[in-house]
Predict the 3D structure of the following.
Amino acid sequence: VSLLKVGWYNAVLQPAFHLPYPDDTLAFVVLSTPSMFDKALKPFVNKERLKIIRDPVDQCISHHLSRMKEKFPDQRVDVMFDYEMLPSRKPKFLAQTAAHVAGAAYYYQRKDVKLDPWGKKKIFGVCIHPKYGGWFAIRGLLIFPDIQVPFLEQPSPVDCVSTEEKRIELLEQFNFHWQDGRYRDIIEVKERYSEEQKAYFATPPAERLRLLGLSQ
C-alpha cells in the first residue's frame, strides 16, 4: 500500500473524476505484487471454491480488503476496487493516476514523450513500478473519510523509464503488442509472474474458472 491525500488525486483530474471527499482526507492505493498469485489467490480458491461465482481475482481482492476493514471497527473505511464502475460507466477511480500521485508507480503517458511519433493514433498510458516493472497490478483504493492529514508531504514516483527512447518503446509495446507482455520488462525487475500465473492471465476470462478446476 502507498498512502495519499485525496486532494493530490483530485488536483490532476477533471472535476467529473473527482472523489467526493475533502482534500486532506487520508487514502491508500493497494497494489498486488507477483507473489499475490501463490500467497493469496491459490489459498483463497482452495478454501472458497464453492463460493466463487465471478472473477476469482476480483473476489479474492474483495475478500482480503473486506477483512482489512474489520481491523478498524471504529473507523469508517470506504473501499473502491479497480474493476468497479459508476452508473455512467466511468470507473469509480482512475487506478493509474492514484498510483502515480501516491508515489507508488510512475504513470507514463503520451505527454511524457517530447517527439510524439504516433500522429492521430490513440495511445494509452501505463504504470511502471521501480521494482516490479509491469509485473504488478493496482487493485483498490481505501479511503478513511474521518481522518484528515494536512501535514502529509507528497512523494514523487520513481522515474525508472527516464529516456525518450525507452518511453517510446514502452508505449509502443503496451499499446500495440501488449499480449506478449514485453512492456512489463522495460526495466530490470526484481520479481515477475510465475509461468503458472502468466498462463492464468493469458487465458480468456471466461475460461479461467475451468483452468482453476472450478465448474462454470
User: Anything to note?
Assistant: The longest helix spans residues 56-70.
